[in-house]
Amino acid sequence: MERESHAGQWAVSDTCPSFQFHDATSSGPQLEAAIRASIDHDRPIYFRTGRGREPDVYDPKADFVFGKAIEHAVGGEPTIIACGLPVHPSIAVARKLAGEGRSVGMLDMATVKPLDRDAVLEAAARSKVILTIEEHNILGGLGSAVAEALAEEGSPARLVRHDIKDEFALIAPPSHLYSHYALDEAGVESVSREIIDAG
User: Fold this and answer.
1) Which residue range is the domain that position 92 belongs to?
2) CATH number of the domain that 183 lies in?
3) Would you say residue 50 lies in a domain?
4) Best mean pLDDT range from 61-65, 153-157, 195-199
5) How far apart are CA 46 and CA 42, in angstroms?
6) Residue 100 and residue 96: Cα distance in Å, rounded?
7) Would you say 27 and 56 are in contact if contact means Cβ atoms under 8 Å apart?
8) Average pLDDT of 30-52?
9) Could you tell me if 55 and 85 are in contact, meaning their C-beta atoms sit under 8 angstroms apart?
10) For residue 120, what is the enclosing H or E element?
11) Is residue 59 part of a domain?
């Protein structure tokens, strides 16, 4: 039986700028790699993790570099930039749409702070739209960090933030919440198709 999301809250607004590093890994193997990579860091690091039931995205022996995005696909109708649990469905959607002849990029931005600005700007240079996807409040997370990078560089790429709106979040089993907030594969696909259809 699937349990509720948390004992008392669904933590969707916990990106904290006071930490030197903020890491939102997609699954257990990536978290393990990030912890190994953290050994030489002497400043606080905030690891935002799932509950251990997420599909593995990476090989357990994969390397991890703080502040470096992982590119899974190159495209621009949009480029999806995701972190944490939405990475797996985002990769699946990018591959599915590519199979239909669409141009969809996909970046795993596992480190929200420091943000890989170069990867964001390179994606924006070839993209009509940047679509950020995160299991987090619309304020102060990945979408906000990407928005700052795009604005500071004067990027013409349009930004669409797909996340939890600034309202009280529901409490329910995780799979129900991902479906309700359209953070599962069907939801990511729907948002991506809307962007593509809008041209």
Assistant:
1) 66-198
2) 3.40.50.920
3) no
4) 153-157
5) 13
6) 7
7) yes
8) 85
9) no
10) helix 117-125
11) no
Query: Look-up: residue for tokens 């470096």?
Result: 68
User: What DSSP state is assigned to residue 79?
Assistant: E
Helix (H, G, I), strand (E, B) or coil at 68: coil
Contacts of 170 (CB under 8 A, 6+ apart): 10, 177, 180
**Residue 98: per-residue pLDDT:** 97
- Quote the crossing angle between the two packed helices 185-198 and 87-99, to the nearest 10°: 50
Q: Is residue 132 part of a domain?
A: yes
How many domains does the chain fold into?
1
Alpha carbons 127 and 146: distance in angstroms, whole number? 14
Residue 56: inside a domain: no
In DSSP terms, 46 is beta-bridged to 22
- Positive or negative: CA dihedral 55, 58, 61, 64: negative
pLDDT digits (tens, 9 = 90+) for 93-106: 999 999 999 999 99
User: Distance (Å, rounded) from C-alpha 64 to C-alpha 186?
Assistant: 28
Which residues have C-beta within 8 Å of that of residue 191, sequence separation ≥ 6?
Answer: 131, 133, 160, 162, 182
Nearest to 85, CA basis, from 114, 52, 129, 62: 52
What Å distances lie between residue 63 and 15, 96, 189, CA to CA? Answer: 24, 26, 29
For the segment 3-26, what is each residue's pLDDT rounded down to a tens digit? 555 544 455 555 545 445 666 778
Distance (Å, rounded) from C-alpha 33 to C-alpha 52? Answer: 15
Strand partners, 22: 46, 113
